[in-house]
Specification:
Distance between the termini: 28 Å
Shape: globular
Number of strands: 0
Strand content: under 5%
Number of helices: 9
Number of domains: 1
CATH architecture: Up-down Bundle
Order of helices and strands: HHHHHHHHH
Radius of gyration: 17 Å
Largest sheet: none
CATH topology: Heme Oxygenase, Chain A
Helix content: over 70%
CATH class: Mainly Alpha
């Protein structure tokens, strides 16, 4: 996968378009392993629920605890343009945490995989990195992470919904703010080039942690395949 880079002199007027381009290029929905998991979830003749259970468990570890990225960002943001968006996003992500947990439980236990303790530690480090990012005092950084999490959640949700159906659960409606409303907030809070750079920095770092999670899940699946 090619990762998108932007010049440091980016104009604030381009923030929403560049954030959308980041999701398109580097988001969860375009990750090859996530695409493979979605395909296997749709194939009811395919054997392993193990990889789906693995993904749901580690999503719980990364995003299943309160406060999360959006909650932290809400305590850092002073932008009036983001206030209503944050209220809706915080409430909706509380429902998403409950949904991840329900899907994870339905899929069953985490599959035994060599190096389990190291994997747990790696995802806990990712969670800590996200906590630090979403508590940044740099104006726009925490909001960039929160906005990008919401935008990228569409790809995560697609996988979760397919996994839920495979586990016999009716997918629940996602109440997170929509794409256009989220990009509108990104545009509104990027009042100058410095804040625009901070928003995009927060977005890139959030996607970096998500890519790291999916690459770890792919590596774990490869180890299980070698173990037979």
């Amino acid at each position: 996968m090619q990762h998108t880079n932007f010049a440091p002199g980016v104009s604030s007027g381009m923030t929403d378009a560049l954030l959308a381009a980041l999701i398109e290029a580097d988001g969860t929905g375009s990750h090859a392993y996530v695409e493979k998991l979605c395909a296997s979830a749709a194939d009811h003749g395919a054997r392993p629920l193990a990889s789906l259970a693995d993904a749901a468990h580690y999503l719980c570890l990364l995003h299943g605890r309160f406060p999360g990225v959006i909650d932290h960002a809400a305590t850092r943001s002073t932008d009036n343009a983001a206030r209503q968006w944050l209220v809706q996003a915080c409430e909706a992500f509380a429902d998403e945490r409950a949904y991840i947990t329900r899907v994870s439980v339905a899929l069953g236990p985490v599959p035994s995989t060599f190096g389990q303790n190291n994997c747990d530690s790696a995802v806990l480090q990712q969670r800590h990195a996200l906590e630090m990012l979403s508590q940044s005092d740099r104006r726009g950084c925490a909001m960039g992470a929160a906005l990008t999490l919401t935008l990228d959640w569409a790809g995560v949700r697609n996988l979760l919904d397919r996994a839920a159906i495979r586990a016999g659960i009716e997918p629940r409606k996602c109440s997170l703010p929509g794409r256009e409303a989220t990009l509108a907030v990104a545009r509104a809070i990027a009042v100058d080039d410095a804040s625009a750079r901070a928003v995009l920095f927060g977005g890139r770092q959030l996607l970096h942690q998500h890519r790291g999670l999916w690459e770890l899940m792919q590596a774990r699946a490869s180890v299980r395949a070698m173990e037979g």
